[in-house]
Design goal:
The structure holds two protein chains of two kinds. Chain A is mainly beta. Helix content of chain A is about 0%, strand content about 50%. Chain B contains no helices and eleven strands. In chain B, strands 2, 4, 5, 9, 10 and 11 form a six-stranded mixed sheet that branches. A five-stranded antiparallel sheet of chain B has the order 1-3-8-7-6, with no helix packed on it. The chains are: A mainly beta, B mainly beta.
């Protein structure tokens, strides 16, 4: 079955550490996205990428970095510059320029700073 | 920037009662999408509306897109415990490259 795989499901980070969250899709989707969700809140866009080797900042990109070296993969690094990284991180993808098809989300990574 | 707002933030209903959530955008939208997130889960795409005044139904769920394409609603008839979760609306930016999500309405159903 096609889908999006995020790993790990739970991640604990010490203060001052960088951590990388994995997102892999086998849907052959062009566009990929990273969202952050805080408890009881909506989704806020961190970064998105429409094609390989290209990505754009979303609304809350500070303290995060991404890469898109392969169509299937869009890893997110949470750097030590992100002051409040504890949150639920969701990766999504979609077919570009195709109406009627929403985003497909992965099952998410819950990051906690300890 | 574009803002998408939803009300109410929370709604408790007795099983069998109806439920409605409302979505308003600060800008005119080319389309609006609705998602459902079960507790502890991830958002799942429900539907997309494109045309002004469009109404679509999925079993007990009715989705409407306003005439001005700035607001939308989701109505659930005779709620069931399986309807529990948070319902999000989302609208694209002008270029259609990214979605802005509303804050969501969390639905709780008492059996």
């Amino acid at each position: 079955d096609g889908g999006i795989t995020q790993s790990p499901k739970y991640l604990f980070r010490k203060e001052g550490q960088n951590v990388t969250l994995s997102c892999e899709q086998n849907l052959n989707h062009d566009a990929m996205y990273w969202y952050r969700q805080d408890p009881g809140q909506g989704l806020r866009l961190i970064y998105y990428s429409q094609i390989v080797n290209d990505f754009q900042k979303g609304d809350i990109a500070e303290g995060y970095s991404v890469s898109r070296e392969k169509k299937e993969s869009f890893p997110l690094t949470v750097t030590s510059a992100q002051k409040n990284p504890t949150a639920f991180y969701l990766c999504a993808s979609r077919v570009q320029d195709r109406g009627g098809y929403g985003y497909t989300f992965g099952s998410g990574t819950r990051l906690t700073v300890v | 920037g574009q803002q998408v707002m939803q009300i109410p933030q929370y709604q408790h209903v007795q099983e069998g009662e109806d439920f409605t959530t409302y979505c308003n955008s600060s800008t005119t939208l080319s389309n609006i999408q609705w998602y459902k997130q079960r507790p502890g889960g991830h958002p799942v795409f429900l539907i997309q509306l494109v045309k002004s005044g469009e109404v679509k139904k999925q079993k007990r769920l009715t989705f409407q897109f306003g005439e001005a394409k700035k607001n939308s609603s989701l109505h659930i008839t005779a709620t069931q415990t399986t309807d529990v979760g948070t319902y999000f609306c989302a609208g694209p930016d002008n270029a259609g490259n990214m979605l802005t999500f509303g804050g969501g309405t969390r639905l709780m159903v008492k059996p």
